[in-house]
Structures are given as C-alpha cells and as structure tokens.
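Support reply, case 0932

Customer input (verbatim):
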Amino acid sequence: MKATMNTRRPVFFNLLQIQMPVGALTSIMHRVTGVLLAIGVPFGIYLLDRSLQGPQSYRTVVELVGQWYFKVAAIVFVWALAHHLLAGIRHLSSDIDIGSLLPAGRRSAWIVNVAGVAVALLTAGVLL
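Our regenerated output:
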C-alpha cells in the first residue's frame, strides 16, 4: 500500500503575512520589553556605580549620557519600562476577570500600546 501525503498542509509559513490580533502583539511585546529591561537594568546599575567612583568617573558618565545614541537608548528603555509595566497590569487584571472579555481586552491592549508610545514620546521631548 502506498503512503499518501497530506496535500492540505501549507507550502510555506511566512510569519510576516500573519495578522495577529492586537492582544497577541501586546503580549509578545510584553515579553520583548522584559528582555530589554533584563539587559538594561544591569547596565544602568553599572553606570551608577561608575559615576560614584570619583569626579573623573562621574565626568565620563555625564559625557556618555550626553551622546545622541545614549539618549535614543534611554528613550527605548523608558518605552520598554512603560510598556512592560502597563502590559503587566493588564495581564494581572485579566487574571482576576477585569477586562477579560474580547472587546475590553482589545481596548486595553490598544491603551497599553498607545500609552507606552506616548510615554516614550514625552521622554524624547525632554531628552532631545
């Protein structure tokens, strides 16, 4: 007997063509921002330690903080912090059945995404 292949399976799987709901994107970004925070917090602690070692170390850190690329990194870090905090509150409230129905879940996901970007834009206005 000849084995037959399932002809209904997809030929390719292009992740860029999949349209995920806003709640899924918010959840994925919650994980991504957690990774960014896990990388950024030790670096921030290192810079704080360096700045407290003496006047020359403090000047070095101040010069670094004044660079454009550091300001961009700070804006990304603030966005990650805001998004992670707001998405975490959204997930926790969903766990106790607040906003767990689909329309409320979509609305809260949009609020988290827009508020995170708004905080980053406010930070950019202050830093740049």
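We compared this against your earlier run and they match. Two observations from our side: The mean pLDDT is 90. Residues 22-51 form the longest helix (30 residues). Please reopen the case if you see a mismatch on your end.
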